């Protein structure tokens, strides 16, 4: 299992604590220090069943100028590149289970669903 975290984020700290309490073996990726590539982000959004703009944090995406990019198939790669270049704009925490199941674990229900893997 891998979790992408921003240590300053309370939702990330909650998720890490839950993984620890569950005794789950996981790897932490501090995605601000080790930003995901365009390819990694494409894989994550595909696993989530989302589009790249759905993965964006509204305020941070606006500050990075990403919201000026059209939200359509033609601009999908531009969104992925923009998120890779501006990792602060990526929703968090993102957890990928060993079976490939991926979630944005911002609430207890979603966090619990990934712990069941």
UniProtKB/TrEMBL annotation:
InterPro entries: Arsenate_reductase-like, Thioredoxin-like_sf. Gene3D superfamilies: Glutaredoxin. It holds the Pfam family ArsC. PROSITE patterns: ARSC. Belongs to the ArsC family. PANTHER family: ARSENATE REDUCTASE. This is ArsC/Spx/MgsR family protein. It comes from Mumia xiangluensis.
């Amino acid at each position: 299992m891998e979790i992408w975290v921003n240590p300053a984020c309370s939702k990330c700290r909650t998720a890490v604590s839950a993984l620890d309490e569950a005794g789950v073996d996981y790897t932490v990726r501090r995605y601000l220090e080790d930003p995901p590539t365009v390819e990694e982000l494409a894989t994550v959004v595909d696993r989530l069943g989302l589009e790249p703009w759905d993965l964006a944090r509204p305020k941070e995406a606006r500050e990075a100028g990403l919201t000026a990019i059209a939200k359509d198939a033609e601009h999908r790669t531009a969104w992925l590149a923009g998120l890779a270049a501006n990792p602060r704009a990526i929703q968090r925490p993102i957890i990928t289970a060993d079976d490939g199941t991926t979630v944005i674990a911002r609430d207890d229900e979603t966090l619990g669903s990934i712990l069941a893997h």
